[in-house]
Amino acid sequence: MEINKISNCSSMVFLNGPDAEEKRIARRLLQYGVTPTGSKSVDRAKLHEIELREAKKLNYVTNKFLTVTIAEQEKIQEKKKEKRKEVNPELYPDTEKAEKVLGEQIYLAIKMKKK
Length: 115
Prior knowledge:
Blueprint: H1 2-15, H2 20-31, H3 40-57, H4 70-83, H5 93-114
Helix pairs in contact: 2-3
């Protein structure tokens, strides 16, 4: 009888093992060079943080992330668009001045070549 109890306990441990999502999370963490802790919620939070940083580096929306949703990626891209100099030239006054100076230099160079 005791042997049956032991086998039942071992099958319970097997049933409560990592599910498919936890395995995917652990695999992704390993791809990023991070060792999984074994706690699904901790690993998911850590992966979300890493993938969020990666999503901020990209200039497009993709479905390659496991924990960062498309909506989150779209918000990141919208914030990037708001900060672009074409949309807000007043945020980049030095760039505008530099472009004007460069234009004047090119004009003077062309004028001097003609003489």
